[in-house]
Structure formats: C-alpha cells, structure tokens
Amino acid sequence: VTHSIPACIGSMTINSKQLDKESPVSIFAVNKCYETVQDGTFFDGSGFAALVREGYKVRSDVNITLEFRTTAVHGVLLGVSSAKVDAIGLEIVHGKVLFHINNGAGRITAAYEPRGTNSLCDGKWHKLQANKSKHRISLIIDGNLVHTDNPYIQSTSADTNNPIYVGGYPADVKQNCLTSKSSFSGCLRNLVLTKGQHTELFDFSKAFDLRGVFPHSCPGAEH
Asked: How far apart are CA 38 and CA 166, in angstroms?
C-alpha cells in the first residue's frame, strides 16, 4: 500500500504509552478530525490540487461539472492553460462564478451573478456545469443557465497541454484564463470532465501535487 488512508485515527498507544498527537516531530497532509463529516475534498485556502501531470488537452469541446461549498467570495475553482494564450478557467470573484475560455483569438467570459453577493457563498452545496463547444460557452449554476456571445467564431480549439489545477495554482505557473490568485477555501466534490463519449471522475487523492488539500474529508456544515 503506497497511499494514505482517508480516515481518523485516535488514542494510539505503543508499549502501553499513548502517543502525543499534539506535538508531532513532523506532519504532512494530516488535518484535524471533524465530529460531522461529508463526502468531498477540503481546501484550506492556502494551496491547490494538480491533476493530469502529462497535460490535459481541452481542444474543441469539454463539459465540466462539480459541486462546491464555500463561505469565501473569492477563489479559483479550476484552470487549464497553455504556454501561449489558449486556456480555460473557472473562478469565484466577488461572489460571482466566471467561466473564461480563450481559443487563441481572445478571452470570452460567461458570468453567473446571483441576486445577493453571498448567496453562492453561503456554506451550502451548489452545482456547477461549464460547457465549451467549439466557440460557444455556457455556465449552469443550480439549474440557472448563462451563455455569452463569442465574436471569435472562427477560433474553436483551446490547445492546452498543461495540468488541471483545482482550487488554486502555484505562483510560478501561468494561467491565461484566471483573474484571481486567491486559493479556494471550502469543499469540492464530484469533479467530472467529459469530452465526447469519454467521462472522467477525478479523485483528488490521486493528484500528483496536493497543497493545503485534504481528499475525502469535508467538515460538516456548521449550524
């Protein structure tokens, strides 16, 4: 077994001596246990998850679905970029959800603006679907559809070949379709990317780089 267990461990004794968990010699990717826990992955607002080390090719079509829960009004959700300008990005800015794409000719954005600034950042789960089909893009939040006109109808393919960054990205990594540098703080679950007939559900515990992210453990909503 080469991976960690997504669980809580307590009251461990070795040779009748209880281990002191409060002052470990070293600690890595260990979070506190919660009395109530939900399915999902916890992002503590300091880092990101990096998926698909060899690079994800968005090209002409991609459909992204995920669920998020946060109380922060800013935060990166997902970005895939290239060394050039081609890229896609999903982010929360001032309580709005923005879906940006650049197929090479220029960035366009679909923006979902809720009635109240905090209505998407209320600590409850919200469903997001972002769709890019050639030059067309749309965004569905909790069943509400937003789409935007794209003047660059001849440009249809986002030629990306970089990892998928979720919840943030490293300072030295370029993201051409994200305006925010704020790491996401909250919980994400059910991240699925679909291209044609190929559907992939991403498991954050299989990310090749995790910083400030705790897979399979989301603190229950506070009451």
From this structure: 19
Contact indicator for 184, 70 with CB cutoff of 8 Å? yes
The beta-strand segments (E) located in the chain are 13-14, 17-18, 37-38, 41-56, 61-70, 75-81, 87-93, 96-102, 107-112, 126-133, 136-141, 144-148, 162-166, 185-195, 198-201, 209-214, 218-219
Please write the tens of the pLDDT for every residue from 80-134: 999 999 999 999 999 999 999 999 999 999 999 998 778 999 999 999 999 999 9
Of the candidates 8, 5, 3, the residue with the CA atom closest to the CA atom of residue 31: 8
Domain boundaries, the chain: 13-219
| Tokens (6 digits) for 146 | 């937003």
Residues 6+ apart with CB under 8 A from 131: 62, 63, 64, 137, 138, 139, 140
User: How far apart, in whole angstroms, are the C-alpha atoms of residue 121 and residue 68?
Assistant: 9
Fold designation for 13-219: Jelly Rolls (2.60.120)
The Cβ-side half-sphere exposure at 76, using a 13 Å CA radius, reads 27
Nearest to 42 by CA among 151, 186, 155: 186
User: Against a cut of 0.85, is the pTM above it?
Assistant: yes
87 contacts: CB under 8 Å, gap ≥ 6:
79, 80, 81, 100, 101, 102, 158, 160, 175, 176, 177
Write the pLDDT tens digit of every residue in 145-163: 999 989 999 999 999 999 9
